[in-house]
Amino acid sequence: TIKQEFKGIDEHDHLVMSTDLDGRLPAVPLGSTVQIKPYKEIHQYSRNFIISSSSCNYTITSPDGDVQTRSYQWRQSIIFQTCPYDEAGWAGATLTTQQLSVDQIFVMFDANNHLIRYAMSNKIGPIHSSLLEQNPCFSGRHGCDINAVCTPGEGVRFSCECTAGFAGDGRYCHDIDECRETPSVCGPNAVCSNQPGSLRCECSAGFVFASDGKTCVEENRPVDHCQRGSHDCDVPQRALCRYTGGSAYICSCLPGFEGNGRGCREREKTRCEQQRASAVADSDVPFSFRPRPTVGRYVPRCDERGAYEPTQCHQSIGQCWCVDANGQEVPNTRTGPHSSPPLCIDQAVTPAPIGPTPRPDVQPIAPGAYLLFAQSGKIEHVPLDGYIMRREEAKPLLHVPDRVVIAVAYDCVEKMVYWTDITGPAISKASLTGGDIYVCSSSELQSPEGIAIDHVARLLFWTDSTRDTIEVSKLDGSHRRVLFDTDLVNPRPIVTNPAYGRLYWADWNRDGPKIEMSNMDGTGRVVLVKDNLALPNGLTFDYENQQLCWADAGTRKVECMDPHRQLRRNIVEGIQYPFALVSFGRNLYYTDWRREAVVAVDRHLGKETEEFLPQKRSRLYGITTTATQCPQVYNYCADNGGCSHLCLPRLGGLSCRCPDATDGQCEEKVL
């Protein structure tokens, strides 16, 4: 039984909910594969409730080849407050049954937390209650057809436009029969069937889709060699055969064994596995791959490679802590009962070191250029070969469980990666060459979303979209000072230009989005761009060419401009939902929420050239690069400019500024 209470969408488009779970789940043996057959959901809905039901069949194949077929059934009831507006399609609705294929559900609430609409949508972003009350597109009093999109204009103006696959004036839209208008649209050996707003192509009997997913070719009967036993994998006690379609399969060794899957031998136990086996034997607990710790006895957790898991817990006393690759506790990471687990960095089994090495708290990466990007609770890195992403070598740099990492930045001097997380909230850093996570700032933060570094003046800048501030501090978080706390609504990306002592940031305020510039000391604030903007999420600065570039999720464009001469030009149009952007040579790289990918854009050619899809698909956030060497730039604060506390560069000089919390021994001056 699952009970969920939905509390609305926050400013980051996260659906906030509370969940209560009760019941049991069927056990699945370790190493098994589960295949779920396609299924349908039936939804019945009325004015203030939705009932859905479904059932599906699935098979569980254990490591020894035993196959079980099971079925799963469920019913779901969704109850919500009656819509306060008399919208067409809601008032007086009768119980209706539909078969749905849900891609995204868009839930809209008004200022009193009343649900206004529950519908399919691709729009992402917060909706201001003032717009809900004023414009018919948001209040529901627009009269557009159910297969039309209502586009708000100024004040109460709006327009209706039929969606793709439909035709009409927007008030009334009828389905377009693409199969009749273009009989050959599906190609040879295929049958076209019209669907509401689209069409479906199905291969004729005896034909199947080719690898391109479009062309129908003669069917070759697939052979599941794993199920038939006609494979060359090692015996089931040591290896697993996994069917991958057609006549293909993959052999892999089971945990505790090593080899290529066709020949597996028992792997020598690692230090973690030996310690775990000893603890289990002493506790008289039957051995399994991941036994539960017994009361009064600490049993270490090992991953499938036999390495220590980064977070270790003693269940009987309710304490957790971080460990290094040797299983030794990392100081100052232990948490007590009823506390969240510590933020521990993932480890890997490494050979015994020869000579002095850095502390193994971060998996070090080889010198070179990389893309670093945030994906919820981790930061991944992708090596760059010139401008080409070496996708097969991508892997996590560090894990920060139970955190939502938003922005990342890189200090080329000390080779440190900095990031913001909105769940702490906190601003933290870690070295690419090893070491602990260091928290730079965690007090008086609410939603830090953008972060930037001046590697010359050794300064850290960030935006807070809840406090509506832009702040600065030293790289260790000391000498903190608020630069701006007015005329900000939703500040997010922020970048620096150390050579000119400039600061740039974007505010995606839906009522007045803008990109601004100031000196790093807070003087000379001006609006650079305010026209033809919608959701300027990503911002980056190209030191070499002195170009400021941004990605806009509303206009679906990437644009660049010379901030000195204010010459603006389009780079690429028709992108989907960019979040963050970084410049590297002739390329721009951005993260996309809809595609859940890192996308490369060639600025000279004005087109996308490559994309990288992480193995785990979810929204990607901030992105930055690790340059092989620092840009050769200089400003007046390279040696702190003779200031006692903060040295803040500006065009043609510097300002000595005091932090907001000062001991009275600080002197401010302009040089």
UniProtKB/TrEMBL annotation:
Residues 133-174, 175-217, 222-265 form the EGF-like domain. One of its GO terms (biological process) is canonical Wnt signaling pathway. Keywords: Calcium, Disulfide bond, EGF-like domain, Extracellular matrix, Glycoprotein, Repeat, Secreted, Signal. PROSITE patterns: EGF_2, EGF_3, LDLRB, NIDOGEN_G2, THYROGLOBULIN_1_1, THYROGLOBULIN_1_2. Its main location: secreted. The keyword Zinc does not apply. CDD domains: EGF_CA, TY. It is found in: Secreted, Extracellular space, Extracellular matrix. It holds the Pfam family G2F. Residues 269-344 form the Thyroglobulin type-1 domain. Gene3D superfamilies: Green fluorescent protein (2.40.155.10), Laminin (2.10.25.10), Thyroglobulin type-1 (4.10.800.10), TolB, C-terminal domain (2.120.10.30). One of its GO terms (molecular function) is Wnt receptor activity. InterPro entries: 6-blade_b-propeller_TolB-like (IPR011042), Cueball_EGF_LRP_Nidogen (IPR050778), EGF (IPR000742), EGF-like_Ca-bd_dom (IPR001881), G2_nidogen/fibulin_G2F (IPR006605), GFP (IPR009017), LDLR_classB_rpt (IPR000033), NELL2-like_EGF (IPR024731). Residues 1-134 form the Nidogen G2 beta-barrel domain. One of its GO terms (cellular component) is plasma membrane. LDL-receptor class B repeats lie at residues 415-457, 458-500, 501-545. SMART domains: EGF, EGF_CA, G2F, LY, TY. Disulfide bonds join 313-320. This is Nidogen 1b. It comes from Astatotilapia calliptera (Eastern happy).
